[in-house]
UniProtKB/TrEMBL annotation:
Domain of life: Bacteria
Protein name: Activator of Hsp90 ATPase homolog 1-like protein
Stated family: Belongs to the AHA1 family.
Activator of Hsp90 ATPase homologue 1/2-like C-terminal domain location: 32-142
Source species of the chain: Corynebacterium pollutisoli
Length: 179
């Protein structure tokens, strides 16, 4: 029998005050500039996710994920504030993906918050959440200088799907939604 690795999900499905979204948080044991560079530099991005072509200053690049090299898509940069905030929209066959990454430094560590809007796309959190868990674990391995191919997709999907089918109750400090 194979070595089954149990992954602990670090995110949740939020119905949110405006739209449903997937939210994943991580504490990464690397300085903020290193994390930012791995998200925004095409050569470093390619060590864990994929690469892009084009000039980000124009507001759009062509992004190609390693897992789907035959379907590059346009990534439009909505907001970029180095080294703390990046918001992009990605054209995908299942709709437009609206993604934000927020980084905050805490000494030698970085807190990462990833968000993806779930309205208007064909996929739900049960399928998307495990995928981003997989990629964020690959990011940490790349930052550590480790082999990202050591991670197995099957440890994430369908293993973590059930976790992302459940909605998380309102976050502390949020007003409950009216029915």
């Amino acid at each position: 029998m194979g070595d089954m690795t149990t992954r602990e999900p670090t995110g949740y499905l939020s119905t949110g005050p405006v739209w449903p979204e997937l939210i994943i948080t991580r504490r990464i044991p690397h300085i903020i500039d290193a994390v930012w560079n791995h998200i925004t530099d095409p050569e470093l991005l390619d060590t864990w996710y994929g690469t892009f072509e084009g000039e980000p200053a124009t507001g759009a690049v062509t992004l190609t994920a390693q897992e789907s090299p035959d379907t590059p898509g346009e990534a439009r940069i909505q907001h970029c504030e180095a080294p703390t905030a990046l918001a992009v929209t990605l054209d995908s066959p299942g709709g437009v993906w609206v993604l934000t990454v927020t980084l905050s430094a805490d000494g030698e560590e970085t807190d990462l918050e990833f968000r993806q809007r779930l309205d208007g796309i064909e996929y739900d959190a049960a399928d998307i959440g495990p995928g981003w868990e997989y990629y964020l674990d690959r990011l940490v391995l790349a930052l550590d200088g480790e082999d990202v191919s050591a991670l197995q997709w099957d440890d994430y999907h369908p293993a973590l799907c059930e976790h992302y089918r459940r909605e998380r109750p309102e976050e502390p400090g949020q007003m409950p939604e009216e029915n």
